[in-house]
Amino acid sequence: MDAFFASVEQRDDPVLRGRPVAVGYGGRRGVVAAASYEARAFGVRSALPSVTALRRCAELVFVPPRFDVYRSVSAQIHAIFADYTELIQPLSLDEAYLDVTDNRRGIATAWATAKEIRARILEETGITASAGISYNKFLAKLASDHRKPNGQFAVTPDMGAAWVEDLPVTKFHGIGPVTAAKMKRLGIETGGDLRAQSREFLVANFGSSAEWYFGIARGIDDRPVNPNRERKSSGSETTFERDLVDPAEIEAGVLRMADDVAAWCADRGMFGRTVTVKAKFADFRQVTRSRTAARPVRDPGDLRRTSVELIRTLYPPTMGIRLVGVTVSNFEREASEPLPLLDLKG
């Protein structure tokens, strides 16, 4: 989807259309969750501190996120996908891989299939989508950004390896800022630079990731679209406007995050046995505390109570807390009543 959260907000509020919009919370400690294309023209991007975003664009409008609405629109989009193929691998609320080799509509080409899906998304949700089309997931992912917004691009088998050569490695899915910086120090800035390296060189410098880098530099990715990939955890976190030491304020933040996670679990019928609370202090030091039950935690009240008990193990805080988060993991789709929770060392 194109600037998904921001596009939904602009769709639902005509006043926001054509204006630079950031989904998130403004203020000294806020962070941009998503930015409209009008905001991106000023260099506003997701994960950018709100203060920095406002310096770059004084007219930026902050809109608080409405994740229940985004999940609802995402469900509409995935229902459209399901009309074409059962091989759907979601990456996030607004992105997925689809294998349309044998599609349910009998459409002859992936290009025509993507075009029809995008048209239906626009008609049924009122927002635009872009598509990348190729013979493997890595190239399709790269191609999906090539004609944004509201476009599509295909990387055919006869152009794949050559097309990768000229792209900067910073655009490669799976190569983050730290790895990209390391590659730059080694003289690797493009796909062509990466392709020029031997397996031995890549193993010596990147260890277990070497084979992956060797393959993608040549347009090779044999991973199938996996519709059964299981979610391992669900979490939510918040950064406070100021560093907190008051237990009541800290716990209020923890409870909001616990409620977010409980709602996600209930929506999907997925309940986990392990509850983890994270706290980040003013000096950016991060601490986690976990507790695991013999059976999944299904009751939101149990999740709230456990989360508060875990954060209380950090009292009194040695310094102000700037961020808290709650995560549930060790999912099981079916469970009976939860047993008492068992302590684990954090």
UniProtKB/TrEMBL annotation:
Its cofactor is Mg(2+). It is found in: Cytoplasm. GO terms for biological process: DNA repair; DNA-templated DNA replication; error-prone translesion synthesis; SOS response. Binds 2 magnesium ions per subunit. This is DNA polymerase IV. One of its GO terms (molecular function) is magnesium ion binding. Mg(2+) binds at residue 94.
